[in-house]
């Protein structure tokens, strides 16, 4: 199952976070168990018809077809739809320059991102409109949010209370702007997402004080979403001016990345790493 999900990512240029990859793996294994116990999921015909029109359904269906021979089962259409919904609502990260390559952009995304950046800029009295790292990060994150809302997929944020305490003023600005966005675009973006968005803006604020003279090249291996990765990146570069963080990647991509980038001096990770010759530290 793990191999098939990795193949799905490579085949269609999908870049799941480690968290989303593990969730998809778990949902697929639970799906196999449900089918073997003859307890398949039930999804409305209307929702099935809507999801079947998406190319992601065809990708998922083909992936499950290859697993049928392995587990000697047949995946019902409803289960393929169910897994497709989780792919559409999954958190993704993109390598630099790859943003939006797979064409999964929600039609509301440009308007929501523009509104959010403009209003937070006004309320915070800082101009975020030229920060490409922020813009790309918000596009990736909010595209996932809008897809989740479209299919009633819930989200949890174990850092919600911590973020409220650490960045109360910025969090309330984001909450106020999201209330306007929800009303303007008939959405219901929850405070869990407001907390994640707060991390994006906090990282942007801290980038203003970056030093330009960097000597050591580092990468960050982070199992969480792009917001936390970027915040960790800015905090490291702010505190250690001699370190230039080249990229934020998933653990699964580490071996391939270091093989292609032999000039990396240091790996900073939020998860334990095995068999790595490059100097590394877990934070």
The CATH superfamily of the largest domain is known as PRD domain
> What's the number of extended β-strand segments?
4
Walk across the major sheet and give the strand order.
Answer: 2-1-3-4
- Biggest sheet: strands, sense, closure? 4 strands, parallel
How big is the Rg?
Answer: 20 Å
Distance between the termini: 30 Å
Give the number of helices.
12
Q: Looking at the structure, what is the overall shape?
A: globular
CATH architectural group of the largest domain:
Orthogonal Bundle
**Might you state the CATH topology name of the largest domain?**
PTS-regulatory domain, PRD
| Low-pLDDT sequence parts | 94-103
- Provide the structure class: alpha/beta
What number of structural domains do the residues give? Answer: 3
| Assembly status | single chain
Percent of residues in helices comes to 55-70%
CATH class of the largest domain: Mainly Alpha
